[in-house]
Amino acid sequence: MHSTTTKSQRGKGVIERYREFLPVSSATPIISLGEGSTPLIYSPRLSERIGCNCEVFVKNEGVNPTGSFKDRGMTVAVSKAIEHGTKALICASTGNTSASAAAYAARAGISCVVVLPAGKIATGKLVQAFAYGAKIVAIDGNFDDALRIVSDLGQTGDFTIVNSINPDRIAGQKTAAFEIVDELGDAPDFHLLPVGNAGNITAYWAGYREYLACERAKKLPSMAGFQAIGAAPIFYDRIIEKPETIASAIRIGNPANWKQARAAIVESHGAIDVVTDQDIVDAQRWLAQHEGIFVEPASAASIAGLFKWFDSSSAAHSFQKIPESSRIVCTVTGHGLKDPDVMIRQLTELKPVAATVADVRRAIEL
Ligand code: F0G
Fold first, then answer.
1. Terminus of the chain with fewer CB atoms < 10 Å: N or C?
2. Residue 192's beta-bridge partner residues?
């Protein structure tokens, strides 16, 4: 094992920690909320389920400052925007990008416009954008419509777009791959993650390749992306006009980074696969109850994918004959409290009992 960063750089944000790999200079003002350095959690019960001496780790991106992986990219995108004199940010979002953009804009002292599909944003994320002071515009349309509009508005020069079509976002997000290699001493054998607009899979693959090129890693992982079955344009290889899934963060029918994601999958000898909404709900609950990690539904797609590859013969890839002692990393992208509705629906109504030891004892039923 080797570590490329000193302890003191941890917690100071990804630009401080990985400056040499990022498009920044001494002229770049750093806008950071201390993102990155998220835990890579060894998961004994997931490992046991896969067997073959495999080690499964969960990279918990839900503990970033605004509760999702977007903060890694946002610190770089907003720092560069400020360097270039931007006065306003704009983004389309299924929720997390808008929460992150709004927070970093507030930190930088500039304005932020977020364009969202009306009624399709998890409450926690909408509340975040509002709390951080963003100008929120809801449209009668889906994320793909919002991104089309934002791309046009970005041409006017009045705004900097901070969606993952901005290369500074991808640059920042690749630091998650660096952290994994720094911690494990090499790249894992497999890396599983949810796919929506496909920026994150693009970023991880860039990060792993960069670390290999400068010999901080000796190998590359196979990249495995999971889409919700009703919103799976890359898997089906066609635009989905009306994407549908309870995992609202990845309800996307025409991903901006489609080609790059395909390249990552092909070059890494990985795969793209689909999971059902029920698989997602089950995996979300399983992860919370067996590993103590509560993630939002979209994030549980990587865990649902792990189970599918272990259990199913219809999967795009199978872990039934996985090489002994493989190392598998699953990224979970956002915190469970951002999008609690699915879990709340499973919560049965709590009937109060009398405030006595005897009644509470009886109610415990253990
Ligand atoms: N997981 C979560 C929790 C997300 O919010 C997103 C994307 C993804 C996974 C997929 O990542 O787009 O890089 O493939 N959310 C975007 C947003 C689209 O607007 O917040 P991706």
1. C
2. 224, 330
